Amino acid sequence: MTEPEPESEPEPEPHPLLAYFSRASDGRFPPCDGGVTVLPPLPGGLECSIAFTGHAVIATALPTADVQAHSPDGFGASLAPDFLRRLAGPAGWIGCTDATLTARGTGGTPRLADLTHETTDHPRVRHARELRANVEVYGDERGLVTLADGLAGRRELSIELHAPNGGSQGHGRGLLADALSLVHEGEAVFAAVSPGNARSLRAFLACGFTPLGSEVILRPDRPTH
Questions:
Q1: Which of 9, 87, 159, 190 is 20 to 30 A from 1 via CA?
Q2: pTM of the model
Q3: Comparing C-alpha atoms, which of 151, 39, 149, 147 is closest to residue 95?
Q4: In which domain, by residue range, is 44 found?
């Protein structure tokens, strides 16, 4: 008698925030109405506040009424320091405010070496593994690229040059262009870039990345009473 095949575990449902990013990457944004949409918290104890044009999306364990009581809106108040501190709690960690960017993979033969098992202690890799899952590392003499499942499960990449302050003219753009070969042709990939890092922001824009909005990731620590 043939033993029955064990039932496989069902795939977890994607976080609803992923649909917002996917639609935005296709040019379909939430309504520009000043409103705020509240979603469940992210996996791993993380939360976030996302600002699209005229509409905010907040993923948190707080009840919607508690979020709305602090008067966020879709015109910038959802990223105001006072609101973020209330969202995170008095001892919670609040990340930087980043621009949210997207582009499409180019596919083909990968143009960067796989360094996943050779760079486990690099600061860029450690940071990626604190916030993302399934982190892969690629690179060459110009720098490193991390490719991972990021915020809400979106495909996300970041780069770091080995020589950011000299001898690297054009290396950022070249490294980014090669990084897009690691993503299937036409697949959306995302990046979070600090607006103050103008050199990096210019490189992403020059390589075809499009701004979608801005975001802050939080690791809350709120009173439990």
A1: 9
A2: 0.91
A3: 151
A4: 17-99
